[in-house]
Design brief:
Strands 3-1-2-4-5-6-7-8-9 form a nine-stranded mixed sheet. It is built from seven helices and nine strands, in the order βββαβαβαβαβαβαβα.
Length: 228
Amino acid sequence: MNGSIRLPMVEIFETVEGEGTQAGFPTIFVRLFGCNLRCVWCDTKYSYPPIDAERTMTIDEIVAEVNQYKSTRICLTGGEPLLYGEHSLVLIEALVTGVDRLVDLHIETNGAIDLAPFMSRIHSPKVRYVMDYKLIGSNEGGQMKLTNLDILRSCDELKFVIASDEDFIEAKQVLEQYPTRALALFSPVWESMKPERLVQLLLEHGLSHVKLNLQLHKIIWDPATRGV
C-alpha cells in the first residue's frame, strides 16, 4: 500500500533544526508541497501554488530517502504536512516504523488542521506536534481550530509568529483565554519585530512561561537560502 500512495514533495534534506525545543540538533527535514493558508510573512512560498510541486514520491520512497541520512530526528513540514489526511497519517506511521534510529518526529502544522484524528490514531511517544497559532498580522487568524489548544500535550509546542506589538498582545490573550499544556514559543518576524523588542515585551508582561524562539538557520545562513 505504501508503494502506491504518492505525495507531492518539495524536498528532503539534512541540516540542524532551526527552532523550538530541538533547535541545534541535526535533523532530517521532509517538506511536503501544498498549504491551505497564505500567511503574508510566509518564508516558504515555494511550497504551495502557483508554484508547482517539484516531484511526487511514494511513501516507501520517502522513507527510503530518509534512511540515507544519519540523523535521528525528523521534522515533517511543508507547506502543511497534514493537508493530505489519511495519506499524511500513513506517512507518519511509516516514518515511525521504518526509521529504526528515530528518537523524535516533530510535525510542523499551521493550526488550521484538526489534530484530533492524528492524535487519536498515532500513539508513539516519538511523535510531537509543533502547531502555529496564526495572529492578526498573518492575515489568516480566523482559520484557527481552537479545539486543538485543548488537546496539545506537554511534549508539544505552540508557536506564535509575532510581527507587531498588536500580535504580541493577541498572543498573550490567546494563552490567557485558552490555557494549554504545550510550550508556548514567541518567534519574531525578522522584518518587522526586532528580537530585542520581543524580549522587552516578554519581560514587561511577565511571560516567564513563554520561550523566545529565534530561527537559527536565518542566523547561520542567508535567510533566503533553501535546503538548510
